[in-house]
């Protein structure tokens, strides 16, 4: 369970990236975060692994709060998949997947490439499970296609059997077919291990298809929290364009009042 407890983040320039966010994400849920550019999606994800420190409030995983004392341990329980893959291009595919062990092994061991044979076997197995045959193991990561690089990113993320995977726009630079394949791989890997996934997306159709739950953010606030079925086109427009909403009584769906009429360049229905 990830618990965001009244989390706010104000940057020194006065930007409020998160405003009093309180949500609970149960273990094993595939939770998609949607919202216009600048809404605070990446900031929200980064508070879970301590890359961004909240100005107010706290984030905890299974009751353990992210703080300097717990950060090292929590980092082993939280992995990240990035939009631009974040592989070391000059390193081999195998080396990049083994880098997923870094939070748990000494830097010296990692630098010297001293990984346990069990870890190497695990890396091979994970690569196979994301569709990369053994002949890719010694290839230079930078030579792979975007879709192949993200497969390596997924294998790396699951190296330490994390409880939480943060995926920040993991398919933003991939074509629609590969995007679906990549999200399917993340979903399958997560379901096998009961891993919680917090995934920001800009593709509404994919959010509806893959999310167990959609969290809609706007100007640092959670303005929608519900199932894909409840995320109607009307609510989609409200999220991206802003609208006056009445509070809905059912607690599955939470739409807050939006006062901004600012439009965005996001692909929403007319
Ligand atoms: N390091 C930083 N310093 C100052 N402001 C920042 C910093 N990082 C993010 N912000 C601001 O915080 C707000 C939220 O940014 P964030 O990156 O979380 O948005 P996002 O929803 O992920 O957007 P996108 O869809 O474009 O990735 C934005 O106004 C952004 O400019
Ligand atoms: Mg972002």
Major pleated sheet: 6 strands, mixed
Helix content: 25-40%
Overall, the morphology is globular
In the CATH scheme, the class of one domain would be Alpha Beta
Our Rg estimate from Cα atoms comes to 19 Å
CATH topology call of one domain: Rossmann fold
Description:
The protein is built from 9 helices and 10 strands. Helix 5 packs across helix 6 and helix 6 runs parallel beside helix 7 (176-193). The strands form 2 sheets. A 6-stranded mixed beta sheet has the order 6-7-8-3-9-10, with helices on both faces. Strands 2-1-4-5 form a 4-stranded antiparallel beta sheet, covered by helices on one side. The chain has helices at 41-48, 71-77, 93-98, 107-112, 117-129, 146-157, 176-193, 204-210, 233-241; strands spanning 2-10, 16-25, 30-34, 56-61, 64-65, 78-81, 164-168, 196-200, 213-218, 221-226. It has a domain at 2-23 and 48-208: P-loop containing nucleotide triphosphate hydrolases (Rossmann fold). It has 270 residues and is an alpha/beta fold. It is globular. The two termini are 37 Å apart. Bound molecules: adenosine-5'-triphosphate and magnesium ion. Magnesium ion (MG) binds next to helix 1.
